[in-house]
Design a protein that fits this description.
This protein is mainly alpha-helical. It is 62% helix and 4% strand. α5 (93-123) crosses α10 and α8 (210-226) packs antiparallel against α9.
Length: 331
């Protein structure tokens, strides 16, 4: 009992410090505000690093009767356990429901991404190079949907798999669409994107080909203009203005860029059904961080209000954002 009380005191100390200490530092003006905030975040980080493992470990491992066990989908990360546990610890039923729904919604989309990519890889015996473009389509739509859940957005992406001439490879519920070309080099990828049939679609190519691809399109444009081929020049201009490594919607949600090398590695993993999103940096924790950066107001309220006091990864995530100036006390 004494250990449990001590652990609760530590947790609430961190929470109270987070909520009330900053105005003391902010009271002396703009210069002191910046300096004080950095001192504050550093101080909280040091306190947290010393306490979080003991506190969370005590409740999750040593006293399972205190907090109801978490229902697992796939193997839960420390982030997921901590997030759910935080809501339970503070006794907030609404927060507990929100925490579970938030984490589960992200994890379901991650599971779909893995299932779709592994399903494609085990069904078709294509080379890694040939599979890269199809893999990129599933990655683009799948990571968009993961990030949408993390943002709290209602939009979603689909892969139509249409053979109609000029049809989009990825379509968003908000109306945006994209053509994807994952060729061996940047020149090949962008040349395949220069066609009026793609209209105002985003022209997605591998993330590691963007710079070279844009340079090649600029040279193509200059050459077309110099010889008076204005129609070709216009097509090139549309392509370069829409060139990107991902798709983005009007609500701010976007997919995660993918390189050609990564696409081929994923294709190789998928052949044996062994593609794991976490091997490529896609986890509930990374998605939640993207959500916090994208929709500061809503996501901050959702992520910080209850779980910040005890969830293992969220405090570190917020400290990084605060140090980089991406969020402030007003968020």
């Amino acid at each position: 009992m004494r250990k449990r009380i001590l652990a609760l005191i530590i947790c609430m100390t961190v929470l109270v410090t987070t909520c009330f200490c900053y105005p003391v530092y902010a009271a002396d003006g703009e210069t002191e505000k910046v300096s004080g905030w950095k001192k504050f975040t550093n101080g909280v980080e040091n306190i947290w690093n010393g306490a979080k493992d003991a506190v969370v470990g005590f409740f999750l491992k040593d006293d399972e009767t205190v907090i109801a066990p978490v229902v697992e989908t796939k193997t839960e990360s420390e982030f997921e356990r901590g997030y759910r546990y935080a809501a339970r610890l503070l006794g907030n039923t609404v927060a507990e429901i929100n925490a579970s729904e938030y984490i589960d919604s992200i994890q379901r989309e991650i599971n779909k991404l893995e299932d779709n990519i592994n399903g494609f890889g085990t069904k078709y015996n294509y080379s890694n190079e040939s599979s890269a473009g199809f893999i990129a389509e599933e990655w683009c739509a799948g990571t968009y949907n993961i990030n949408a859940k993390a943002n709290g957005a209602d939009s979603y992406a689909v892969v139509p798999r249409s053979n109609q001439n000029g049809s989009a490879d990825v379509v968003l519920s908000t109306g945006e669409s994209a053509s994807l070309k994952y060729y061996a080099d940047a020149n090949g990828s962008v040349k395949a994107q220069v066609h009026p049939k793609y209209g105002d679609q985003t022209r997605i190519i591998p993330a590691d080909q963007i710079d070279d691809g844009l340079d090649y399109l600029n040279r193509m444009y200059d050459k077309a203009v110099s010889v008076g081929k204005t129609d070709i020049a216009e097509n090139i201009d549309v392509a370069r203005n829409n060139l990107n490594s991902n798709i983005k919607s009007s609500d701010g949600t976007q997919s995660t860029p993918l390189t050609k090398t990564e696409a081929e590695r994923i294709a190789k993993d998928a052949k044996t059904g062994n593609f794991k999103a976490s091997d490529y940096g896609v986890t509930t924790s990374s998605a939640a961080k993207i959500g916090l950066e994208t929709v500061k107001c809503g996501a901050t309220s959702m992520l910080i209000a209850v779980p910040l006091a005890v969830a293992p990864d969220i405090i570190d995530m917020v400290m990084d954002l605060a140090k980089n100036g991406e969020i402030s006390k007003d968020d």
